Amino acid sequence: MNLPLGLSSLALTAKEAALEAAKILKNGFKQSIKVSTKPGRQNYVTEYDNQSENCIISSIKNQFPSHQFLAEESGLSYQIEPEEVLWIIDPLDGTTNFIHHIPIFTISIAAMIKQEIVCGVIYQPFTNELFISEKNQGAYLNGKKLQVSSTKFIKDALISINFPYDVKDHPIFSIEQLREFTLLGASLRNLGSSSLALAYLAAGKLDAFWMNHLYPWDWAAGKLMIEESQGKLTFYPEKENLFTTSTILATNSQLHPELLKCIKH
Known about the structure:
It comes from Protochlamydia amoebophila (strain UWE25). It is globular and about 50 Å long.
């Protein structure tokens, strides 16, 4: 697999951790999967979520014993100081797909220093798509530099929308806005993995992404990839926050003003 030259030790560590955890998920995908639930409708967790997370944290700790973690299943390791490195991890983004044996899911890993994402890795094990980004160094898919799409009009756009599990508690995600997107001609897709959708947006495969009630492990790696591929991401109406959920609109930049109007309408 070709990779961009000059990866930092953080990015290399994230890449290796993702590849190692992917072995667990690919093996587990073939097995009978034990499922438990978390709060929210169809919000599942499996033994492989936990195994993948443990693998990633262990792999990173081998290289950086003093670093801290914010992971989907285990939460925050402890309250960190701003100058410390914080790893933000989703060990299996797309658990619902996984348990239904739909091979669309990812591992997402990002490193943050002083409230800024400095590197991110998103890996799709079954398509072998390895997305890597570093601050001010670009974003890459299997070694090829990424650039967002050049789509200018909503009528030509392919937009990813991921429905939240607890839509009753977060009514801002309105069917009326989705209806407006389709009336304007956009095609909508729900991949079931927010991090994969953000990576595909960075790669120019999608033109926009909209979802509310996202946790930081859903967006951390993807945010940097979009910024490094010349896209735009807005936290709406909330601001970016590691300890609350966020509503996100991400686009190829050209569609951003018009789609933001649709959302606010």
